[in-house]
Structure prediction request, 804 residues.
Amino acid sequence: MIGEDLPGQASVVVIGGGIMGCSTLYHLARAGISDAILLERNKLTSGTTWHSAAQVRALRSSRNLTNLIKYSIDLYSALEAETGQATGWINKGSLSIATSQDRLTHTLRQKALADAFGVEATAVSSGEAKERWPLMNADDVLGAVWSPDDGRVNPSDLCAALTKGARARGARIYEETAVTAIKTKDGRVVGLETTRGKVGCDAVALCTGLWSRRMADLAGVSLPVWPCEHFFMLTKPVPGAEHHLPTLSDHDGHLYIRDEVGGLLVGCFEPFGKPIDPGRLGEDFAFQLLPEDWDHFEPMMMNALHRLPVLETAEVRMLLNGPESFTPDGSFLLGESAETRGFFLGCGMNSVGVATGGGAGMALAHCIQHGHPPFDLQEADPKRFPDHFSSVEALAQRVPEVLGKHYEIAYPGRQFGTARDLRLMPLHREWRKAGAQFGQFYGWERPLYLDAKNEPGPTFGRSPWFEQVGREVEQAHRSAALFDLSTFGKILVEGPDAEAFLDRVCANDMKRSPGAVIYTAMLNPRGGFESDLTVQRLSDERYRLYVGTGAVKKDLAWLRGQLDPRHRVSLTDETESYSVLGLMGPKAAAIARPLGGGALEDLKFFRQGEAELAGLPVRAARLSYVGEAGWEITVKSADAPRVCEALLDAGAAPAGLYAQTAMRIEKRFLAMGHELDSDMTPLDAGLDFSVAWDSDFIGRDALRRITETGPLHRVVTILFDDEAAVPLGNEPVYLDGEIGGQTTSASFGYRVRRPLALAVMRAESTDAIENAKVSVDIGGTFASGRVVLGAAYDPDGHRLKAAT
Ligand SMILES: Cc1cc2nc3c(=O)[nH]c(=O)nc-3n(C[C@H](O)[C@H](O)[C@H](O)COP(=O)(O)OP(=O)(O)OC[C@H]3O[C@@H](n4cnc5c(N)ncnc54)[C@H](O)[C@@H]3O)c2cc1C
Prediction:
């Protein structure tokens, strides 16, 4: 609609006419939002979408990301029948080969995940792989996984089909219409300015690919998206590629390969990509490519020549170089922004935009219409990044590594090496002195374990830090350890209506007296976890919320979303102002006493109070995330080094995150992002003790309904029989020969001397599950174990005084 005037008002405006914009518009229209419009500054697909290799491989690292692509596959194969426009869907499957033992383990772990997620996948021998891909040199191939449902599509035809389907339902598309400004009022988006006039709207879907960071800036939203150059080589026809072939993934060689009009398409995710400043790609960058760079591609070319001897004589047609956007963790952004209501993001597709686009557009449309995705998509929640990652410097450092990691073996505990030291904890110097190995979480550098001699090599076997973590657990168990919990998000909720507000937002009873510590959840109206947290009531009108490290932006946005103008409540992010030290272990009291902490010994479990430690004011709470007696001590960040030093001098031993995690799993303390998510309810999780049924909290009606029908899940502990088993989490659990659930967290349990996992099981498979025998597929090896419904380790750790 080039000549037609824009409407003055539309309920939703989609910006960007690539796969994400077209799919979102289609799904909005399909959901009945027929006045939605799409604005594209050039022509549809003219950004990254037109030159995509457009492979569609279903399996992702999580069930729900995989579900999005499964949805795409169904949609892409069905759209032609619906719209009359072909999508170019070719279902030839995909083959992932392994040429090293660790890659084989990784590939078999992927296969096990596929089984758990309902994606068809078969482990095949090197010989069978060669039969499926005769042009490949399979001399060094140890094995492969065959996925028959995968395929590819023609991205331009796909977008044509989606927009045809959208138009048929009333949606309108305006090409050559660039958005130049985004209008907000009281923190909400209200309209746009474009090169063809203004449009008022209730919601915006930002689908502008690599231009999204600058566009989000127009709405006051900080966005961590930055492009890299992305390459594939095309050859002229070669013998053996006359017919369609499966997609061949040679991840050790950083390559993906398929046929293309009788020749070969050889693409790469090289170990370190080339970032590009999007400012270099002007407003008129449409249907354009970047210059070939054979020097950069050469190592990949060598790998390709090894894998495909036919390339020795093949004629090269071109080295295609197109820009594609990446985010700091390799997953895309989908959902409402933290900063501006009604401003929804569907961008940063990390080179899987065409595969994911069908499902992601559906999910984004669902978010816009219902305020939440159709199922938990925390891996894509834009609020998972602190603003520190949105700087050009951090992004330009990080995204080339993200591109490279796309094909890297997913070893447990792997970390990014770039864009580090963005956020240092107040005790960073102390932990460095103690020899900490750091890991990055929400930008923070957290000590994983202490006394690290050198950078450990990656392994799927027993980790190099196994003994050290065991020593830290031993300290907490037999003496006292000091854990740094300072990365907790801390939110002060203050005002005359603080109690009433929190009583509505939190599922537990928040009407306790000042001094109370309350474990609770913020639930959505479906009864699922938006956050699990502890709350300290500081006074009648002040509560401090302690939320997960990566949850503070999301939780603040959630809380703001529940506030109504009549509430006399203010919210303050105090995360950086305070540190939290976990002093845990039977000698905690003996250590704190001479420093002035004697009064804390009278605190009952789940109570908190003020004291002085080493002459500095602290607030200590009697609770424990590790199953040993102790306090979580909140102290001003500026005072933390002195309190820490005094506690260490008095005999506490520093301990890191891995020890804490091992202990939490033994104690069956559940964690967001592992066992808990927005689809899990306290009833599924067995946390109904934290539900105050008499309070009128958000989610209560849904929970009441579930009490009648029964929960869908059950969280259990698995104790492995073989002490040498190394479960990592995310493995299928077989019960009576069928997959009954999946591990969510795993570790060695040092206090019970056994490998352990927490697992979410389907409720129908869990009748009489206590003590049931299960088998867990750990990378193709089945490890047997026994189920317990409670904690693997349940000490009587609450009796602080008796233990000292
Ligand atoms: C070489 C290469 C190979 C790839 N291979 C695959 C693959 O095999 N499988 C796969 O799934 N993915 C692949 N990808 C990635 C995939 O192509 C992208 O993830 C996807 O196309 C991104 O789509 P998008 O809609 O987010 O962005 P885009 O397609 O870039 O669309 C964004 C649109 O926004 C428009 N726009 C920008 N600013 C404005 C404004 N101010 N006003 C209005 N409109 C605006 C642009 O003009 C553009 O059309 C590949 C990418 C490359 C580069």
Observations:
- Residues 13 and 143 are 48 Å apart (CA to CA).
- Confidence is low (pLDDT under 50) at residues 797-804.
- Residues 15-21, 39-42, 46-49, 51-55, 178-179, 207-209, 211, 215, 230, 232, 267, 320, 322, 324, 347, 349, 351-355 surround flavin-adenine dinucleotide (CB under 6 Å).
